[in-house]
Amino acid sequence: MAEARELLIELGTEELPPAALPRLRDALAEGLANRLSEAGLEPGAPETFATPRRLAVLFPDVPGQQPDQLQERRGPAVAAAFDEAGEPTKAVMGFARSCGVEVERLERETTDKGEYLVFRQLQPGRALGELLPEMLEAALDALPTPKRMRWGSSRTEFVRPAHWLVVLHGTEVLEMTVLEQSAGRATHGHRFHQPEALKLTRASDYAERLRTPGFVEPSFEARRESILEQVHEQARALGGRALVDADLLDEVTALVEWPVALTGGFDPRFLEVPQEALISTMQDNQKYFPVVDEAGRMQPHFIVISNIESRDPHAVRDGNERVLRPRFADAEFFWQQDRKKRLEERLEALDSVVFEKRLGTLRDKSARLEALMQRLAGLMGLDANLAARAARLAKCDLVTQMVFEFTELQGTMGRYYALHDREDETVAAAIEQHYWPRQSGSELPDAALAQALALADRLDTLVGIFAIGKQPTGTKDPFALRRAALGLVRILVERELPLALTPLLQAAAEPIRERVPEADQAVEPVRQYILERLRGYLLEQGQAHETIEAVAAIAPDAPLDFVRRVRAVSLFRERPEAEALAAANKRIHNLLRKAGEEAEAELDPEALVLDEERSLYQGLQAVRPGVEQAVADGDYLHALGELAGLRDRVDTFFDQVMVMAEDPAERRNRLALLRELRRAFETVADIGRLATG
Fold first, then answer.
1. What is the enclosing helix (H) or strand (E) of 131?
2. What pTM did the predictor assign?
3. In terms of Cα–Cα distance, which of 334, 341, 351, 330 is closest to 418?
4. Is the bond leading into 503 cis (omega within 30 degrees of zero)?
5. Across the beta sheet with 298-306, what order do the strands follow?
6. Which pLDDT score is estimated for 242?
7. Which residues, given as ranges, of the chain have pLDDT below 50?
8. What is the pLDDT of residue 212?
């Protein structure tokens, strides 16, 4: 086999989509690694590189040729291969012909199914240079590209126009043409600092040659870390700390090849504008990192990452400050204009914003929220007037100029405007926090009023959209119902609200019926949809699928209760008697199911004739009060512990008692006893579903 050496593959392009860059890099490395391994060319763990203008993979140890491979094909059975005279049949002659040999060249192999003819041939391994072009093209075709394009008169398609290709095996160029680029050893450094091509002597030179003299840091992770260090260093020099959003950091990393941090400033008068608006425009529009003091208050500074070591950094700084100024001036104007009108005065404007055609406008939704909040106020012990007020004003900031410009500030600006209007602070907080959690894993509403409004908003959306038949299908979820359902689950569970789903959904359906008469029909489908999200939530927390299904089988209606039962069953499974009791419960279930109507008889304790069945009944009667009290208190682990004390009696019962006795009366009574035992366990979960057998 040819010597194993480092293999470098680099594709140079025009600027790649920033959000997709790490994904493209990883997919290319994985695609090539898999194809090399499948060909018997084990490449070792690759080092990956990605900059705005390149994707590259460096494998440490790739053989130059495949190992020789023994090819083997099984033909017909010997019994069918030759006739009575010992002459080959048409079947074996056809097989030999397909292998390109005479029948005499075929070998015999004895298997457990009989003796067969086989063809074996040693196939010489192909050279890496022969295999790689097809592999690279296949890996590039399989990339998860956002959108492919063609350029010029070319029919070749890729996410961006390709400009160069490097394929080096050790010091040798592997000649090929991919994406209309001929492979060579010339890479390209920084567009301005190093415009001339850089020749690579060997594959292992790649990263260092790009850094020096190329002014390109090819490693995404190293570039990201450099940006982070520079940003924090610049912030400390300004006497503050930088706000570093992880997504923004990744985006900036994908936009530059040679990061250089610079500081800038702005007129302190803009600090009178809510800092969320300033931060939003800096991060989303300009890709700047804001600076705050230790208390989190905005400072009149920002940090920008340049893609060049400028000879005149002051000019770069001035340019960035000049671009930021009009954006801040717009935010200042919106802030001043919006406060001239109270939030409540914007209710009428909500009539002009359609939420959904059949469900009406945002004002209609606000009215439904107000009705639903009255119900929640009673369930959660809230002030009914504050609940109605919060619902009435919840959507009013959506028609302000500030939120029209900065949509991500919905709710946040509502809080500012409500406080300006001297609304109750809990109402103002609820207006902001009813959008929480904004995304998976993010912060939940704090106070009860905000939690109620967040629940009401999601309940109305879920029931309304299901009622008109627009529930999510496949990957399409235009109303973000998955996020709404998961948010609802998290609020109920993590804020420990013991509210049942069915009454909540029925309450949400009531005001919707005015527009959609069949709204009640959506209650059960929405409940099941929410419970599916709850299952996913528990799986992500590491709960076992069988544990979740054991609880789901008894259909608890309150998500918090569902979760508490799952956690109790999960702990119960660690006890030594759990497996035996689960198996016994599964056996009970099967017996009752097969018995059909016979299992519906009432238990007559006086008719229990054997000591073992009387003992089981007495044990069940002894633990029943403690189990019922523990279940009433929500202490499900204690309830299961009480029931676990029956293990010996249950085992003895099944060892000594014939449940399906010949005497019909005895049989029905024993089935009734088992039904009582099963009911006791099912006050917590169907633990028979935990049985492994």
1. helix 128-141
2. 0.82
3. 341
4. no
5. 241-242, 289-292, 298-306, 260-265
6. 97
7. 1
8. 95
